[in-house]
């Protein structure tokens, strides 16, 4: 089986925190539907996590003097932050992509990347 990471790079933390229990349940239901679709094509969700409270994150960068700088917040050199991810296995990349389309109902962007096994 090939391993992939399915990431949610642009979920809005403020929208999630302002959401109702019903809003949250709709997201959970969508994620569960993805897992079921993935199982139906022979794949599986092997792990995953929601990365909540990105405003409490810290970023470490190595400077020109080889010193490490620690800053508060998710201030990486990008405009998007990862809000969660799944690690999945699936032999059929097209089937994984098709199953992941359901996730766009709850996550504005879904990114799928192959993972090198060690």
TrEMBL record:
Any coiled-coil regions, as ranges: none
Superkingdom, taxonomy of origin: Bacteria
Pfam families registered for this protein in UniProt: YCII
Ranges of residues in domain YCII-related: 47-112
InterPro entries reported for this sequence: Dimeric_a/b-barrel (IPR011008), YCII (IPR005545)
Family affiliation: Belongs to the YciI family.
PANTHER family: BLL7171 PROTEIN, BLL7171 PROTEIN-RELATED
Protein name: YciI family protein
